[in-house]
Amino acid sequence: MIDLYCERLGPGIWAEPINALTNLAFVVAAFAAWRLTNQCRSMSVETGLLIGLMVAIGIGSGLFHTFATSWARVLDVLPILLFQIAYLWIYGSRIIMMRTVHLAGLVILFLIAAYIGRQFPHLLNGSFIYLPAFILLLGLGLYHYHHAQTEPKLLLWATAIFSVSLFMRSIDLAVCKYFPVGTHFFWHLFNGLLVYLAFRGLLMNLTTSEGRVDS
What we know:
215 residues, Rhopdopsin 7-helix transmembrane proteins
């Protein structure tokens, strides 16, 4: 059994009920993203991939917070990483219009930074691994603010939400004495909102450029 969070006090699969159930935030985010995509008539392989990965994040994290095993941890971490890579690739190629070689280099640098972050699992309660993602989202947010035709502040709002969710994830074990269920579940709730806002920021500017937004 992998015991990483304040809420878990034993080996049972329902030892983290709040941490497990709050992963429904990602399913709700996926449903909202799906509805928005249909409204904009913009369903594609790219948007479908991101929506599917939102669902996979919720399922994978839910499994990890119930079974708390090594295989469940892989299912928890992998969809998050794939969503980050897919989003970076789609935003970089479709919105920023980066050359493939430059975008591939950026993805490789991001993966290297994430790998380095994994070497410090005890820093910030394991949240150090997400520092590259935060820096990347901030960079995209600044670009989005200056260049997006629609809702230019959206990715900056997503970055602000990410900073709050990172804080909540980082203090989980530190607050056990005062708040027995911990604060990790806020990580799920805020990140559910985060992935929706990030998706919306991408989609609305794709559809604006392609002229497919319904009036």
